[in-house]
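Limitations

Structures in this collection are predictions, not experimental determinations, and the ligand pose is part of the prediction. Treat each record accordingly. The example that follows, with TXD as the small molecule, is included so readers can see exactly what is and is not provided: the inputs are given verbatim, and the output is the predicted complex.
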Amino acid sequence: MRRKIALIGAGNIGGVLAEQIAYRRLGDVVLFDVVEGLPQGKALDIAEGAPLAGSDCRVTGTNAYQDIAGADLVIITAGLARKPGMSRDDLLAKNLEIMKSVAAGVKQHAPKAHVIVISNPLDAMVYTFKQISGFPKNRVVGMAGVLDSTRFRTFVAWELGVSVKDVTALVLGGHGDTMVPLPRYCSVAGIPITRLLSAEKIAEISTRTQNAGGEVVNLLKTGSAFVSPAHSAIEMAEAILLDEKRVLACACFLEGEYGVSGLYVGVPCVLGAGGVEKVFEIEMDAAERKLFDASIEHVRSLTAQIKL
Ligand code: TXD
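Predicted complex:
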């Protein structure tokens, strides 16, 4: 039997997710949104292209939570996206109310699902989902680090004129301006980038990565990045659905790791059929730890504003 993947939010990211999941034959897709016609229209368009992708996966759109029943995986993009001049944190008040209703709907209709949260401000939204749903921490994970790391990889590959396939990167901490790229843990085919690029160039790439979301928002003017975020979530979805045991930077609920408790923070983890199966605690030097601590404090103050 095919797996069932429910997508809550049929906007820009939801649309790319639906297409990719169906055309990669990962499972049947149910696209949910509060806007009538939007999920149905996108689903129909994608379903009608399925023969070209050689996919028999079903794609349907709905405005009713009952239709997500039995989902193995739920990916949440519901909420507002940024406009130029806005920070991710500016979305908190509106998206908090949306996330509360989404968590209640998923809890009622897909209580056994794995959940990937994408909505911003990411660390606060994934925390809200976990608190409202009461799902165990291994089944609720946030997508941010994969995207931030892939942006860093892109810039390194451009700078060195090498294949993006050979560049690995690690960006940890909260998904905001305080995110922490860790150049010492980035490499090109195993060669640390600290041996290939100057400290100035690495600092430039780190800063561009931290501002990369805003760079796209300023160009688009009407929304935020959606292709790279969708593909980042697909990487996580595949890891869970195919039990790949991928090691990816994800927002995980920490209970003592890195000296943090009760918060979602971006850390390297093993993602497989059990969801977040393990968190890797990596060594940081004093300067890295200082940035990481500052990022955690930012997440802590944002999370403290959440009234459930
Ligand atoms: O790295 C990351 N985590 C991110 C996060 C990278 C990029 C964008 N990120 C955030 O994802 C962004 O700031 C937004 O909060 C979400 C979704 O971004 P997207 O670009 O897909 O936004 P859209 O196109 O505005 O789509 C949001 C949809 C839209 O169709 C609304 O009608 C719907 O969400 N929506 C709802 N769906 C279900 N239930 C409720 N209550 C609801 N309210 C709005």
